[in-house]
Amino acid sequence: xxxxxxxxxVFTPFNLGLAALLHPRxxxxxxxxxxxxxxxxxxxxxxARPVTFAERLYYSPVVNLAVAAVAxxxxxxxxxxxxxxxxxxNSVNFLFLTLGILLxxxxxxxxxxxxxxxxxxxxxxxxxPFYAGMFGIIRxxxxxxxxxxxxxxxxxxxxxxxxxYWYSGILNYFVPSGGSKWAIEAPYxxxxxxxxxxxxxxxxxxxxxxxxxxxxxxxxxxxxxLGVAKTEFRNIVGYGxxxxxxxxxxxxxxxxxxxxxxx
Length: 263
Description:
Number of helices: 12
Order of helices and strands: HHHHHHHHHHHH
Strand content: under 5%
Oligomer: single chain
Number of strands: 0
């Protein structure tokens, strides 16, 4: 896609105006108590009797064993075919991640240990290696071209921004990271834009706003905040849903107009 300058994305009147429209007034903002940052995080209580399917998996070795088995297959292949040449920062980190998953036996034990070791950022540290795996699968399997062809078939230059906006928002719920998600999406988002002759700045901006859209109903962004505030995502998600509904309506209308307002 070459270089898309910020003058055609971030600093366009469209993008700045939309951000200003959605920014709350100072009197409407609520700030977290800075004193909470100085307090030690409370340990998560271990439930003696899991009741939901997700909780049963959380305290079961099934997930850890399945992930570790796949990882071990790759490690054996990597070092078996490359020998000592297979040793690099990525393979060493992957090896330790695999050992941690396997030796902790259950997700509950592994994630509790990660939280103790890396405090408020443990969710980011653990999830990013898995995002890299998703990117590798999409890039090397040919799935990127298949998805690009889907977009090309259903979109036009006029509708492409709003379609990418919603697609990016939906994918963000499952891969909630702007940078990692862009690495996953870029091969087919850019290819489809080229195929359609759509505006590249419009594609980039719609991707970015779609990525933000579902953040408020996805717990990933709130991991550090929840740790500091000592609360759970379930206590704030209702407010997030209300905000998301209003946000989605305004931004959907904006990206229906984006092809007219952007270069």
